[in-house]
Amino acid sequence: MKYISTRGQVEPKGFIDTVLMGLADDGGLMIPEQIPVISPEELREWSTLSYVDLFLQIFARYVNDEIPAADLRELAERSYGNFRHPEVTPVKKISDSLYIMELFHGPTFAFKDVALQFMGELYSYMSRKNGDIIHILGATSGDTGAAAIQGVRGKEGIKICILHPHGKVSKVQELQMTTVDDSNVLNLSVKGNFDDCQKMIKDLFADLTFKKKYHLRAINSINFVRILAQTVYYFYAYFRAQDESGERKVNISVPSGNFGNIFSGFLARQMGLPINKLIIATNENNILERFVRTGEYQPGEFRSTHSPSMDIQVASNFERYLYYFLKEDAAKVSDYMNKLQTEGKIVLSQEDLEHVQRDFAAYGASNQDCLQSIIKYKNEYDYLLDPHTACGIAAYEQCSGPEEVCITLATAHPAKFDESIVLCEIEQEFPAPIQALFSMPQHQTIIDHDLNEVVRQLEAFYTR
Ligand SMILES: Cc1ncc(COP(=O)(O)O)c(C=O)c1O
Ligand SMILES: N[C@@H](CCOP(=O)(O)O)C(=O)O
After folding, report:
1. Were 240 and a residue from 91, 175, 244, 429 both cysteine, which residue would form a disulfide, CB within 3.0 to 4.6 Å?
2. Which ligand number lies closest to the CA of residue 417?
């Protein structure tokens, strides 16, 4: 298996080189040259596997023996051994037509742990084995940063710098990132929004001299291994729903922002998993929902909502979908991305829009939808949704048919977003590891939205 760029200007790479490259050197995103297809017989065999065994089966199709099987097993077991639930990502039945897959049983109580626990182990393995210097640079709207820091804190040979939007993450997210006092961690709190942070890190990765000089490595979903690790739970979810749903079609509703999570679902479907509808659930930052409804992809005005981790206008992984949508024509992808840069939008023909609507359903939840879903599911099912999952539930209610079964991905634990839970006049008890954060000192550097200042901070950090 080789990996290529969506923009076609990178020589095909192996798995490890793809992980190390992060953002493709031509500014695109790395993707597998060919997506492996799993036969129905194999899917049947996979359907009873444990989470770790399923992970190993899927990864075996992508890593080309670049990591010996025994080592990969050890990395996976160590990663998922840190989860508080033996099933890693358990599925709960809410009603006859609704299941919730809880992706928040990892160390930082959000779905990012699923891929980032593994990435932390993988980077550490690469550093030990090859003596690679790993300088991680990432941007976060709150969850990726916390999970990435947790995945590598204190690990030898690794330094991590995370940019988050100042004052725009929840209190618990801020504490999870900034109470870590290991010397290999730097938190930059940027006066701007997540899109500003993501743009700055993409600019730094695109500066190949800087990237090479400081050995920059990515933990955001620009890194293909993040996408791959997230496909595992789509298989796992589908198999659990299939156990119960009989002949009914299985939909999956995904709270979406940077399009990484749902792109993993798209990849699983391309691999042969018969997911019926993939439902994109957004908040009021609804660029993806507008795209599916109208065929126009145009960043709008940034809004602060009750689901702050999805307050994203520029959905990074949209480019990966574009590549497959444009029948793997990298020149066309470059064209479309240039158009987005110069004209501020991409507009599809009616025929292309119909194609998109066959790939995805979508719903943009308003702030009111979000709070109403939290209140309704607490009252009717005694289940407390976090505000991102609540957007997923609102989308399930709009897009899933009466004869279908839907699994909504619960992307975070409600304790991370008590600000929104309080607005619903609901009291919750915090899990002990979250409660403990409130009495710990914080470490962060607040900076202006200024690329030169980020460079100064990074140079000082990486060379000390
Ligand atoms: C809790 C939560 N839900 C949903 C999302 C959206 O996921 P994605 O960016 O992969 O679309 C994020 C982060 O983006 C998140 O932190
Ligand atoms: N919601 C994310 C945004 C970054 O997304 P990523 O999947 O590209 O890392 C966050 O919590 O930071």
Report:
1. 91
2. 1
Ligand 1 and 143: CB distance under 6 A: yes
| Residue 23 within any structural domain of the chain | no
42 assigned to some structural domain? no
Query: Six-digit token pair at 204?
Result: 């730094």
Residues 398/404, Cβ–Cβ less than 8 Å = no
CA angle, 317 as apex, 58 and 135 as ends, to 5°? Answer: 80
| CA of residue 97 relative to chain centroid, distance | 26
* Gap from CA of 149 to ligand 1 centroid (Å): 17
249-231-310 Cα angle (round to 5)? 90
Enter the pTM of the model: 0.97
Residue 167 CA to ligand 1 center (angstroms) comes to 18
For 436, residues 6+ apart whose C-beta sits below 8 A from its C-beta are: none
What domain range includes position 349?
Answer: 91-108+225-423
Helix (H) or strand (E) holding 326: none
Q: Flag whether 340 is in a domain.
A: yes
411 lines ligand 2 (CB under 6 A): no
Q: Is the CB of 144 under 6 A from ligand 2?
A: yes
* CA–centroid distance, residue 412 to ligand 1 (Å): 9
Q: How many folded domains does the chain comprise?
A: 1
CATH at residue 253: 3.40.50.1100
pLDDT digits (tens, 9 = 90+) for 437-462: 999 999 999 999 999 999 999 999 99
> pLDDT confidence of 396, banded at 50, 70, 90?
very high
User: What are 278's two structure tokens?
Assistant: 């993939």
Spatial CA neighbour of 139 closest among 82, 103, 193, 175: 193
Q: How would you classify residue 285: left for phi > 0, otherwise alpha for psi between -120 and 50, otherwise beta?
A: beta
What would the pLDDT profile of 400-417 be if each residue is shown by its tens digit? 999 999 999 999 999 999
Which residues are part of the catalytic machinery?
112
Q: State how far the Cα of 317 lies from the Cα of 115, in Å rounded to an integer.
A: 16
